[in-house]
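Subject: Protein record for review, amino acid sequence with backbone structure tokens
Category: Structural biology, sequence-to-fold work with a learned token vocabulary.
Format: Residues in single-letter code; tokens as whole numbers, each standing for a residue.
Body of memo: The sequence and its backbone structure tokens, given next.
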Amino acid sequence: MAIAYSRVLLKLSGEALMGDAGYGIHRPTLDGIAAQVREVVEMGCQVAVVIGGGNIFRGMSAAADSMDRATADYVGMMATVMNALLLQDALRRAGVNARVQSALHIEQVAEPYIRGKAIRYLEEGRVVIFAAGTGNPFFTTDTAAALRGMEMGVDIVLKATKVDGIYTADPKKDPTARRYDKVSFDEAISRQLEVMDATAFTLCRDQKLPIKVFSIFKPDGLRRVILGEDEGTLVHA
């Protein structure tokens, strides 16, 4: 079965790991994501992952309101390390060899980010999970996904969400909302479509790195994306 993308960067939000819970990790949801990743790895796709930490702590949140912004962002980065280790464990239980590389040096639990080593892991069929964002405050994990995607030479950035694409309006509020199959970067800007944060979006646009927005909660969503089927919304140059 031919795949449309041979190397991808999967951007997972921390909130995606919560499932229907309001905080933390929902184990069945985590295991379901691991199973989807295993399926596409077995199809021959090389998968890198950037993971957020919003299920535990977010720098731009009410909980961080009185904190110094840089300190709050570092706390958020450490939350992403926790999520990365949990995802690595879920993948290993699913039979997938995974490595965590962190932009913050926490060598007792994760390797430091080394570009050449990460590429070699991907070529060997391992999943590489990038934790701690860019390692710098004031940048989101969306920006980290764009940067790591470019550094890894991926074919596409896959933005995993709770909604199966980009719509003309909120589909939960407007039953007439229509899903875009494809949209250009310029159209996304002019229509003020919230795809990724502005820095990440600009990086992808300038490097002509396409973005696919899809639902990670559809059991076969990731597989359909990798096969190039009509799933989610493609943002392209």
In short: The longest strand covers residues 7-12. The mean pLDDT is 92. Residues 7-236 form a domain with the Carbamate kinase fold (CATH 3.40.1160.10).
